[in-house]
Design goal:
Blueprint: H1 4-9, H2 15-20, H3 41-45, E1 47-52, E2 58-61, H4 63-69, H5 73-76, H6 81-85, H7 91-102, E3 107-114, E4 126-137, E5 143-151, H8 152-171, E6 175-179, E7 185-188, H9 190-196, H10 214-230, E8 234-242, E9 249-260, E10 266-275, H11 277-302, H12 309-320, E11 327-333, H13 334-337, E12 353-360, E13 379-380, H14 387-394, E14 398-400, E15 408-418, E16 421-431, H15 439-476, E17 487-494, E18 503-512, E19 516-527, H16 529-547, H17 552-565, H18 575-579, E20 593-601, E21 606-612, E22 618-620, E23 627-628, E24 646-650, E25 656-660, H19 672-682, H20 690-700, E26 710-717, E27 725-730, H21 735-750, H22 757-774, E28 779-785, E29 788-795, H23 815-822, E30 825-831, E31 834-842, H24 853-859
Antiparallel strand pairs: 1-2, 1-5, 3-4, 4-5, 6-7, 6-10, 8-9, 9-10, 11-12, 11-16, 12-13, 14-15, 15-16, 17-26, 18-19, 19-20, 20-21, 21-24, 22-23, 22-25, 25-26, 27-28, 28-29, 29-31, 30-31
Helix pairs in contact: 11-12, 11-15, 12-15, 15-16, 16-17, 21-22, 22-23
Length: about 850
């Protein structure tokens, strides 16, 4: 159609050029054509026709000619066609052409015309018509003509639209297909052909089965039929196919809609596809990155909550199966699990390992990854040339080839490295049907194994320290069931469970001169080996101070200075320097501890308490409910600067005294006050055997949570009977020495201790003589019989006796040497009103190891 104007310009009539210059003129408006939708191609291009008789006049005028030129048939028939629609200025040339046509010549040209238009004041709009005049003959043999007229403006518009459509179809970056009603490709654009190969014509006649796998093709075919039948459009349907002759998978987002002919008849389906392969890959990468990040976050939250090696390994597998892999195992070096201090494993990667964890999301035999299956708990090793041994040897992940016929298609052997030390091997496997491991998966597996390895190594270090602290702690506790004069003792010590660190709880029972007993319970604040060491130092210091026979408040004051020096270099040696620090000094390196120290006198049944921030003792008197003693709490040891107070309480016969640490009464499940009330309420029957009372308390309070160490020390009061005590007061005169010997002889004979009479008389004589020479005030002599015989001489002097070595020429100075030789133990202590010098003799019937008095006297000269 684009050649028609060119033919017109080649007309012999020079006036054709003027006609052709009117090509750009405005065509008649579409409103002049028809209001109803076009039903055929001719409606779109506005084609009209008329015929000319041998006389050169219009003898037939079509309805479309009426619509195109605005001239009714009644008027046009019988008119000269030149006059009917040609502009008056061109009618002369048109008449010449008409004469030529009637001579039998064809003619094609572009003719301007005007149509009447009421809206234009009676002058029609200027249009341009392409006229094709075809000569014909009548039945009589006369020349006539048939004329076909096309609106040039409309024709050019259609031509432009067609070119635009061709450009859009051919140059579109999207894959475009036209599928006919038989679901065969009618036409594809260059974009589609460039992806799937060949030219556009090569794809004509193909179906979806030529591009898609069977299942996918059937799904798409069903969708195409539904669109063809219902006319319902489909938006963003995802389709996956392979490029013919290649394994490359392509992903498309497809829009489908039904297309119709001009008459409204469905003629096929338009397929507009966008290649989203790269977008899908990017989305998969982003999703994988998010999934991996979420997996790492989950690993950080779930791995390492336990300080147990096997539990930590199982926590790793709980995270990775099935979120990362289908099967997984963890093997740890056997030396690591047995507490070997040397770095685990051998350099060649073939050392013994123990399978500590296995997890699977699929059914199958126990998984090994290499060689025969290994059960959890079994000890094994990997062959030297295996990928697993290579991974352990090089500390780098290795891919393990799958076994033929097995359910695994991809396995990664990842060494578990912590602090540059390989502690074991993790194997991650994916079953057939899952996506094989990629580089990103390898990196993630290394990160997961490393996190678990650090937690396992921390658990190993904790286990080592925990075991050392337990050994130290148990070595410092009193062995067996401690004994005390005038007391029935029962104790319990329960360390925290394996998930908690060793604490600094301790208790002690220390025998003092004069059948007295020191009861101690303490708790170093903090946990771990350092707390256990600090506890050991404080316990040793308590025993040392107790042997000095200091008052309870003095013992705690000295302990306070020692505790302030435990956190400084030099330990106890720095206690004095720490004590001189200002009160507001930094306590970050000072060990704080609580302690209650009680001294019980079995003769008087009086007990003196001093407290350093510890929980109050509990007393149960016969027939009375248990109560907490009102002992001033004081400040914890290590704070310094605060004096400690003493409280003296007389304990009735058969009373029950309980000392304990906070692990017995304090828990995460309830506050301290509730625990104290529960403890007091559990002490309901003090007459039961002490061992039963201890068990009843522990079972009633449900102390098996293991959150903290528990120390419980219980003592039932059994005062020394009056007949086991001899007590006399002597005036300060020389004859009191002889009287003291008489009292001692008489008392020992009444106790059936005749074998001890001579030794006792000699030693009593020496002590009373010293009191006369160096002491002050009246003299008191006291004999005590319990598991041993104790003799005490009291006076009001403050000067302590001092043992010295007498020279050969000295007449005196050998009395204390004689006491040391003949007694099992001796010593002196201060009292509120002076001092007491004492010695102790074992009862007859055992291997005493004591020296004969005569031999002792001879040895001094």
């Amino acid at each position: 159609m684009s050649e028609i104007p060119a033919k017109a310009t080649e007309s012999e009539d020079p006036s054709d050029g003027a006609m052709n210059q009117a090509v750009e003129a405005t065509a008649p408006g579409d409103a002049m054509w028809q209001s109803s939708p076009p039903g055929s191609m001719y409606d779109y291009i506005k084609v009209a026709s008329f015929s000319i008789n041998p006389g050169g006049l219009v003898d037939q005028w079509s309805l479309r000619a009426e619509q195109l030129f605005g001239v009714p048939a009644a008027r046009a028939v019988g008119m000269d066609p030149i006059e009917a629609f040609i502009d008056p200025d061109l009618r002369e040339r048109g008449q010449r052409k008409m004469a030529e046509i009637l001579d039998g010549r064809e003619w094609t040209g572009v003719v301007p015309f005007r149509m009447p238009d009421a809206a234009d004041g009676g002058r029609g709009a200027e249009g341009l018509a392409e006229v094709y005049v075809m000569p014909t003959r009548t039945a009589e043999g006369d020349n006539a003509a048939v004329c076909i007229v096309v609106d040039v403006r409309t024709l050019r518009s259609i031509e432009t639209d067609l070119a635009a459509s061709q450009a859009i179809f051919g140059q579109s970056p999207f894959g475009f297909l036209l599928i006919d009603t038989e679901l065969r490709v009618r036409r594809v654009n260059e974009r589609f052909a460039s992806i799937f190969g060949g030219t556009s014509d090569d794809h004509r006649g193909k179906g979806v089965h030529d591009y898609l796998a069977r299942g996918e093709a059937e799904r798409v075919s069903a969708t195409l039929r539904r669109v063809l039948e219902t006319g319902q459009s489909i938006t963003d349907m995802h389709v996956t196919g392979h490029v013919p002759g290649s394994e490359e998978r392509r992903h498309w987002s497809v829009n489908l809609y039904r297309v119709h002919s001009g008459s409204g008849r469905p003629i096929g389906i338009a397929w507009l596809g966008t290649d989203i392969t790269a977008r899908r890959a990017a989305a998969r990468e982003a999703a994988a990155a998010r999934r991996n990040l979420a997996l790492l976050n989950e690993a950080g939250a779930r791995i390492g909550n336990s300080l147990d090696l096997e539990t930590t390994a199982r926590e790793l597998l709980d995270v990775v199966v099935p979120g990362f892999c289908d099967l997984a195992t963890v093997d740890l070096y056997q030396g690591l699990l047995t507490g070997d201090e040397t770095p685990p494993g051998l350099a060649d990667g073939s050392a013994e390992l123990r399978r500590v964890a296995f997890a699977s999301a699929v059914s199958g035999a126990p998984f090994s990854g290499s060689g025969e299956p290994v059960e959890v708990g079994a000890v094994h090793h990997f062959p030297f040339n295996s990928p697993c041994a290579d991974a352990l040897r090089a500390a780098r992940p290795q891919a393990v080839p799958p076994e033929e016929g097995g359910l695994v298609q991809s396995t990664l052997a990842v060494p578990m490295v912590a602090h540059d030390t390989v502690v074991g091997l993790a194997q991650f496997s994916r079953a057939k049907g899952s996506e094989p491991f990629g580089d990103r998966d390898r990196d993630l597996a290394v990160e997961l194994a490393a996190r678990a390895a650090v937690c396992i190594d921390n658990a190993r270090l904790y286990r080592r320290e925990h075991e050392r602290a337990l050994i130290l702690q148990r070595s410092l506790l009193p062995p067996g069931d401690p004994e005390a004069s005038g007391l029935d003792i029962a104790c319990r010590y329960l360390p925290g469970n394996a998930a908690t660190e060793v604490g600094g709880d301790w208790f002690d029972v220390i025998e003092l001169p004069g059948h007295r007993t020191a009861l101690v319970v303490g708790d170093v604040m903090g946990r771990g080996l350092r707390a256990a060491v600090a506890m050991g130092e404080l316990r040793t210091a308590v025993r040392t101070l107790a042997l000095l026979d200091l008052e309870p408040a003095e013992v705690l004051s000295a302990l306070d200075e020692i505790a302030r020096g435990l956190g400084t270099p030099g330990g106890v040696q720095q206690a004095t320097r720490a004590a001189r620090q200002p009160r507001d000094a930094d306590l970050s390196e000072v060990y704080l501890a609580t302690c209650v120290y009680a001294v019980y006198d079995s003769v008087t049944r009086r007990c003196t308490f001093a407290n350093a921030g510890h929980l109050p003792p509990v007393l149960v008197e016969p027939g009375e409910p248990a109560l907490m003693l009102d002992v001033p709490p004081g400040m914890p040891l290590g704070v310094g600067g605060e004096p400690f107070e003493e409280v003296e309480v007389e304990l009735p016969e058969g009373a029950l005294l309980a000392l304990y640490t906070d692990g017995l009464v304090e828990s995460r499940d309830h506050p301290l006050d509730e625990g104290l009330q529960a403890f007091v309420g559990a002490l309901t029957d003090p007459s039961r055997p002490l061992e039963d009372v201890c068990d009843h308390v522990l079972n009633t309070l449900d102390t098996h949570h293991g959150e903290d160490d528990i120390a419980l020390l219980m003592a039932r009061v059994q005062g020394l009977p009056a007949e086991s005590v001899g007590d006399w007061t002597l005036p300060r005169e020389p004859r009191s020495v002889g009287r003291a010997r008489e009292y001692a002889r008489g008392q020992l004979l009444s106790w059936d201790l005749e074998p001890l009479v001579d030794t006792t008389e000699l030693l009593v004589s020496e002590l009373v003589t010293n009191a006369l020479r160096y002491g002050e005030g009246e003299i008191r002599l006291r004999l005590l019989l319990d598991r041993t015989l104790v003799c005490e001489v009291w006076d009001s002097g403050l000067v302590q006796p001092r043992r010295r070595r007498a020279r050969d020429t000295d007449e005196g100075g050998r009395g204390l040497q004689l006491v040391g030789l003949l007694s099992a133990a001796w010593g002196s202590r201060r009292t509120p009103r002076g001092k007491t010098v004492w010695f102790e003799l074992p009862l007859p019937g055992g291997e005493t190891g004591l020296t004969d008095p005569a031999e002792a006297l001879l040895s001094l000269f």
